Amino acid sequence: MPDIRTRDTAIANALASLESGRFEADLRRRVAMPTESRNPDRKAEIEAYQTAEMIPLYERLGFTCRLLPHDAAPGPFLLAERIEDPARPTVLMYAHGDVVTGIPEQWSPGLSPFDMTERDGRWYGRGTADNKGQHSVNLAALEAVLETRGALGFNLKYLVEMGEESGSPGLDAICDTYRADLAADLLIASDGPRMTLKDPTIFLGSRGGIDIHLELIAREGYHHSGNWGGLLANPGVELAHAITALIGPKGECLVPELTPGTIPANVRAALKDFVIQTAPGDPDLDPWWGAPGLSQPERVYAWSTLEVMEIEVGNIANPLYAIPPTARARLQLRHPVGVDQSRVKPAIQEALDAAGHGRVRVVMDDTPGFPASRSDLDGPWVRFIAASMEQTAGRAPVILPNLGGSLPNALFTDTLGLPTIWVPHSYPGCRQHGADEHLPLSIVREGLALMAGIFWDLGQAGHP
């Protein structure tokens, strides 16, 4: 009797979960759980995602499960393990089950953050793209390989957290405390967007992210602009000019310590043929904006961006027609490997002082930043995973040195010492963190096939 346990069968079984409606039912149930990690009233839902949703699934797939609590985290971490043969490679996977605030009042008519809706080939709902939809793809693909082969053929450890959208509090301590338990040959995870809607993508790390709070307190109370205008310094004007000492008129970062200084040759080579493309509904790009002399992919994936997120001065909704006493702004730095985060806030204060804006102070808070990280572009695991994806998709994946956004990837590269490979199942226009977050079914379908192929090949070939 012929052996039907083949790679194509595993992929077909993964796709069958989509065609049968089972995948949709699983994701719909997960989206319906409002696991908002920044909302202290969601503690019960956050814990239930691990205990009622994740643990039963992993145990059904032959994993042993442990909850790893940490006081700083919104909910417990989950470590699920399936160790088949210590001689085979061990993969660590990562996911997060928490989401940002739902903001239901901002969604389009007929859409709701915690009631998944299909419209125009997309599933709308909070977490469909970030990150419930993405780890649901990986779990369904794993189940398909187990169904086909009867085993994975490799060892798998799966770490699920519930606080990534709150800055992953406690994840550093968990990785350090359970370093031996999390030991593996590589990390494979899915988060963030593909390069474009249609391009299967690998990225090997993430840019770092750090918030910078600026504040100017001139005096107490508001003062009538007719009586005091021209006599009292205006904090709003001062702050606006201070920001121009940090960011140029075309968005370029003016503080050298906040940039990597140079782009490595292999990173520049990896990005040289890429073109950033928009999808319907995306804003038009501004090619004149950003660091001069760099291509748009280099600006996003290989350089630093310092952006103004919010400015607060006076009260626009209820104007007093008075000189305000204070002005505040929150800036955000995204940076690649090569920037010392410990120098970011002092360097900004030094730049402000040097430009004559010493009244504006950088507020030194304890908000943690995400460090930048990047695995070896030429590593053997990268070639192995890329070859598997090309075999499945019929075209080579885009390989990015790092994501433009920020993830806790440095904990896996630095603390655990792992090469990290991220295979995203979303795209830049998914509206994650905003209203109308969605996941195209086309990406789900291709993601299921890609991941089933990767898991099959890991069990078939072992180490590259």
TrEMBL record:
Keyword field contains Membrane: no
InterPro entries (alphabetical): Cyt/Met_Dipeptidase (IPR051458), Peptidase_M20 (IPR002933)
GO molecular function, one term: metal ion binding
Keyword Protease: yes
Top-level taxon in the UniProt lineage: Bacteria
One GO term (biological process): proteolysis
Keywords: Hydrolase, Metal-binding, Protease
Organism per entry: Pararhodobacter marinus
Protein name (database record): Uncharacterized protein
